[in-house]
Inverse folding.
């Protein structure tokens, strides 16, 4: 049964990591232009407009900064989770970010909005991943083993 948890945490890391990188790719236009099939934003402007709907009390400058911070965070968390570097910290940050995102969706869009997407599933998964003590197939594990040699 121990092998199942090792495989499960690897799959969870990869799924969360990819789940963060795809929206980043969307908002910088790598998945196609706005209006294309499977594209939500397609460019930075449409993403910032969406960010403003989640924080309507913020001005344009603050909204742009929040969009940039969220995008950088998602990119860093995604890469770190995939390669297995600083997993505990990346997973915790990802959990906090998605919790804030889900709460803003619930308050400023609708209670149903964060449940139409797996926002709170991401939150719970990320926080569970942050609580795991050992990440077998990771850079973190390699560093840990090198220190013990």
């Amino acid at each position: 049964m121990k092998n199942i948890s090792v495989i499960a945490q690897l799959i969870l890391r990869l799924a969360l990591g990819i789940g963060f990188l795809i929206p980043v790719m969307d908002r910088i236009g790598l998945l196609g232009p706005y209006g294309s099939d499977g594209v939500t934003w397609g460019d930075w402007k449409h993403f910032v407009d969406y960010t403003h709907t989640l924080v309507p009390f913020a001005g344009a400058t603050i909204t742009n900064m929040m969009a940039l911070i969220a995008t950088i965070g998602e990119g860093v968390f995604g890469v770190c989770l995939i390669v297995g570097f600083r997993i505990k910290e990346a997973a915790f940050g990802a959990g906090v970010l998605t919790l804030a995102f889900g709460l803003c969706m619930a308050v400023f869009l609708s209670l149903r909005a964060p449940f139409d997407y797996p926002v709170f599933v991401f939150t719970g998964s990320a926080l569970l991943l942050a609580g795991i003590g050992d990440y077998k197939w990771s850079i973190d594990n390699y560093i840990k083993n090198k220190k013990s040699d």
Notes: Residues 93 and 123 are 10 Å apart (CA to CA). The chain has seven helices and no strands. The chain has a mean pLDDT of 95.
